[in-house]
What does this fold into?
Amino acid sequence: MKKSPYVVVFLRILLTPAFFYAFMWDFTEIAVSLYLAAFISDIVDGRLAERQETIPSSPLEAYLDPIADFVLVLVSFYAFSLRQFYPSWILFVFVFMFLFFIISSNKREPVYDPMGKYYGTFLMTTIGITLFFPTELVFNNVLLFIIAYTVSLAIYRTVYLCKNRTGDIYSGSQNTDLIESILLLGTPMVLENQRNKPVQKENLKFIEETESRQLAV
It folds into this structure.
């Protein structure tokens, strides 16, 4: 069952609209249960992918997990904004960060940085905190933490990717220079070895005959 992690991810996507309506219709216990199921599924699909060494067969499969996380976070905070827990502009922040993540990755698979790989878990945690502690003080603190983490992550990811790409280019040029140096150093050594090779008897005889003819002339 190599595709089982993707089945879990699809289940998380299906839980998202159910969570939204349960929350908006004040079925708080159901909304909390659906959130916990989605949160656990995020952990489970990662463990399954590692255990089964699942290799995505397409870019869609590679990006499916971050897409599922993004959909859940965006829909959850949209519901929170409708209840005026958080300002609606926070949704644009999430959209910006997701697009930034996609653009700064490659076409085949997402590229995670050490700080960014915990961003989804952080946002999932803020959803739980909002559900369990729905007070204005909590909302304000959560919003501050989201802004601080997001700004820090945007700066960190930019610097991280720039350093990595520059390092790759520099490493590549170093390798090229190293190869050229070896070739340049090796060429005279090869020539010298050719000069120092023992002369075959036939060649020596031919050279002696040629020299004697020249002297005779």
Notes: Residues 169-194 have pLDDT under 50 and may be disordered.
